[in-house]
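Minutes, project check-in

Agenda point 3 was the complex the collaborators sent over. CS summarized: two entities, 326 residues total, and the question is how they sit relative to each other. Sequences were read into the notes so everyone works from the same version.
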Amino acid sequence: MFRTRSSLVITGLLASLFAAAALAADLQSPDMVKMGLHILAGVYGDMDRKLAAEQYDRLPHENQEFQEGSGALRDAVAHEPAAFKGKVEADLKETLAAAQKVADTSKTHDKTQVSAALAALASSMKTLNALFPEALRAEPGTVDPPWMQHGGKAPPPNK
Amino acid sequence: MMKGRALKVAVSAQCASRRTVLLAAFAIPFGYSVKALSAAPKKQVQLDIASDGDLLAFKPDQLTCPTRAAVHLTFTHTGKYITQDHNWVLTVPGAAEAVAQAAMAAEEHSGWTPRGDKRVLAATPPCGKGQHVSVDFTAPAPGDYPFLCTTPGHGAVMHGILHVTPN
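CS then shared the predicted structure for the full assembly.
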């Protein structure tokens, strides 16, 4: 019984890996997908910095960028099979709603509430990223490390 | 006779001193203008830079020009989706982060650029999606000068270096 379950789990995992690999090979515009996900992750990073600096009034602008930037991912999957496109659209819709929540919550100027909304956005972005091969993903908080790490002096020559 | 000769000598001496004064009067500003010419920019340099599509990055993020060159820089906003403006602001070394902070206080009506801030060496006006803007400036002393977009939040990641080389 236990062995059968284990076999099923392993088979399932292998099937997912193969499916992801097949998807990577099958995507019509992998570069555009990568850019679309990077745009969203970049704006997320900007939101995160605004929250850290408690610049709540700027967060609605970041949400606007997020909503506009999502057009890149939409265009990137425009020619994908309907089932996959539908899945991306559904997850993207949730991600955009989460970004809107960040903007709405920012009006409270309550760091705890805005942090929770941003965490929810990060979570939905991870779900969205998981639809794509690992090489194309841009997880929230992983792109565009701020130059503040370099003390505001000369950034690295080739970031 | 002697009196007349002495007078002639005196007059010619007076003329000579007048000439000297006149020459000196011409020479002083001429000397200054020679100095000014030698300090004038030597080369005309065109630099082109753009946003990296809709990503918060400059492309290229490294520029080079010789010191004292008369630089004409053109920035192009190549974004397709995001309407947020960008700009290009050159600062003195080590001041980029402080300028980014000062830009926040400068607010949108000033193009997110702290006007009169001595740490700012050159700045374009804000540039919308699909547009381009320019700025003219004289390249500073040799060194590495940071540049950034001062639209709030952009500078932390949208930045680069202008390498100013000796002539």
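Noted in discussion: The interface with chain B takes residues 35, 38-39, 42-43, 45-46, 49-50, 55, 58, 61-62, 64-65, 68-72, 144-148, 151-155, 157-159 of chain A (CB under 8 Å).
Follow-up: revisit at the next meeting once the mutant set is ready.
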